[in-house]
Amino acid sequence: MSEAFPRRDGRLHAENVPIEQIVEAAGTPVFIYSASELDARYDALDAAFSAVPHTLCYAIKANMNLAVVNRLVTRGCGIDVTSGGELFRAQLAGGDPSQFVYSGVGKTDAEIDHALDAGIRMFNIESREELRVIDARAAERGVVAPVSFRVNPDVDPQTHPYISTGLSNSKFGIPIAEAVDAYAEAKALEHVHVVGVSCHIGSQIVNLDPIVDALQRVRSLVTELRDAGHSIELLDVGGGLGIVYDREQPPSAAEYGAAVISSVGDLGCHLIAEPGRWIAGNSGIFVTRVLYGKDNGDKHFTVVDGAMTDLIRPTLYQAYQRIEPVGPPRENTRVVDVVGPVCESADFLAQQRELPILERDDLIAVHSAGAYGFVMSSNYNGRCRAAEVLVEGDQFEIVRARDRFEDLIRGESIPEGLG
Ligand SMILES: *Cc1c(COP(=O)(O)O)cnc(C)c1O
Hints:
The longest helix has 20 residues, at 208-227. The radius of gyration is 23 Å and the shape is globular. By secondary structure, the protein is of the alpha/beta class. It is built from 12 helices and 21 strands. The termini are far apart. Helix 5 crosses helix 6 (128-141). Helices cover 28% and strands 26% of the residues. The chain has 2 domains: 7-33 and 282-408, Lyase, Ornithine Decarboxylase, Chain A, domain 1 (Beta Barrel), CATH 2.40.37; 35-280, Alanine racemase (TIM Barrel, Alpha-Beta Barrel). The protein binds pyridoxal-5'-phosphate (PLP).
């Protein structure tokens, strides 16, 4: 699974298409996704769970482009949504709501109604108050909502604090020690039906120990709940499997699947996994064009047309993303900060990075940009959000047009009735 962005005749390609050719059609900055890589990753993870009944519910928040989501649901993938907007997208992309799970700490009444009407497979409930609200909304519609609690097992996933969710001080889930009481309350309600247990401890996890540790705790809970008379048919193990950005050595899909199955595979549950980053992250790159070089003091800056508004991971998580020139390799290098045009010192794609010498109009590729890239972009500084392109073999299509100026002011007006 490394041939998605190969170098051929010295030039970087997306599958069989030269990046320069895509840029000619789509401009810069641009996100480029490999359809074959998305397929291969879905298939690899699906195969890793093949020994047990399972559904992969792609965490659509990682990359919600309709073309990307459509690609996955066409292969039988379910979806994990975290908002009404994501539910709307998942449906529009052709997903089957009976394969959707809904996670998130702040589901609004309208979002709950939308999910009930769509007929999703399971609500992953994050508080007892939410349980009561879902019961009431379902009662009003004369339906029964399939639910699980997202339990917080209090384990440290050993990742960045902003993407750690399974520690007892995080806002996510209910403390695992309170789960038995919460399930008892759910059982007494008429318009919810307990179908499972869910758990998601964080993202970019590169060590299996915390995952196995969390699943051991969930495993005891499932046994306890069954003893209390709940039928726990679904076990949602969350997402979070990490990918290679730099020199990480995450477990393979097969190792991850084997670890999950050896922890909870004998419970007889239908397993659900919610991979996001693992499917989309290394299926995409971000391509930006060099505008200027400048020296301030003894620091060299390479100013590019992509910015933190397009790809915020380096700024938000101090994340490393590998960068290389699209054109032929060069011998000389220098240490630079790769920065965007936005009026913030936090606007960088790389800091103190040794890169081949770059010149005006050079194209550079920022790797591992398929997940938590475009989806976190904004229009700050009046910037048009980037185009997105899907490639398959020697063909490509623009699957989201670059914002136009009209898009920047959509819905705005200068009031006529005030003052
Ligand atoms: C973000 C999230 C995921 C996906 O995480 P990845 O690290 O992208 O796999 C899965 N489940 C829940 C509940 C999430 O919030």
